[in-house]
Design a protein that fits this description.
Layout (H helix, E strand, L loop, with lengths): L2 H23 L2 H21 L7 E7 L4 H8 L6 E6 L3 H10 L4 E5 L3 H6 L7 E4 L4 H26 L4 H5 L18 H32 L2 H5 L5 H32 L7 H24 L4 H17 L12 H7 L3 H15 L3 H30 L1
Helix pairs in contact: 1-10, 2-8, 2-10, 8-10, 8-11, 8-12, 8-14, 10-11, 11-14, 11-15, 14-15
Amino acid sequence: MNNHDFLLWWERIIAMTLKELKQLFRDPVLLLIIAYFFTLDVYMAGSGINLSLRNASVMVIDHDHSAASRELIYRFRPPYFDFKGEITGKNEAEALLNKGRILAVLDIPENFQRHLLQGLPEAVQFQVDTSNTVLGTLATVYAAEITAGFGQDFAGKRTDMNTGQMAVLPLIQNRYRVLYNPNRIDSWFMSIMELLTVTTMLSMMLPAAAAVREKERGTIEQLAVSPLSSLQILFPKVISMGMVILFGVSVCLFFIIIPIFDLPVKGSISLFFAVTALFVFTTSGIGLFIATISHSLGQVTMLVILLLLPIILLSGAWTPPEAMPQALQWAMYISPLYYYNEMSYAILLKGAGIDVLWDSILSLTALGAVFFNFGVWRFRRQFG
């Protein structure tokens, strides 16, 4: 290819890219949807979803009504639990749990204090509504810690041991450190995860929608018989929609996630956007494939939703890879969101650089080449 052909090739690419941008800006509904996803949707995910236990409603059946039972009940207080009062029997407790009125019931048996004073083992029952598995598990763990602490404190009082004497007793201490998010702020994780999900969905949806619009308007056949190659027809759609997505990511990051949720960006913003551009290119190849088998925007939407869920579930964001069956662990390596998820958190929260992420970058590049070339091949086969 000589210089004239090279310049002509890029002139066509630029002209087609400008055409795609003009068509997008003539669709105010689609622009409004894109703006919503990169602003309100991410904000609601970061501020409205909490993976911690906060003010879990608990009621008590106190058969003992002693000082020990009152002290134990007092420990189930905010911010983790919200004591809603006392009930009289198990039937009422089961009815409230079945209706979802409360999350848990603490059942304290008779002679609770007397048995503790006698040094006898005593058990309390903690009934939990685990229809929400995450909250139910957290409530059980927190309740176990509260009762264990109460038992230790009560044993020290019963034996009249002071603080100094308790300190010399053999004790196993569980010391742990939380790295990168020491305060365990859920909004950091949820807002970033929602941004990655939105980016994944739109990077498949927008190029596919741009290609299918050509089918619906009958202009795809005109482009197919024009001097433009398949690459010159499809690549501008990826470039233009990728530019829009990168702009949306920058708005979301600089105007929503960082200022509102106080996200401390530890790594290179430039590297994050470079990785995002590579990810958009990769998933755009999936979108181009969707466009070749779709005949309307409705079909594109349904196919994107169909593919989006397994891509998210195989990203490792909600389920650790080591907790998955071996077959799904292998399947994760063909999910582009798996690499993008790993790199995004590593860059934004851990400050990782190319020296750490080079293998993920290479893997995502290889997937992008395969997906994009497959989409172009399908288009050429259909209209060539």
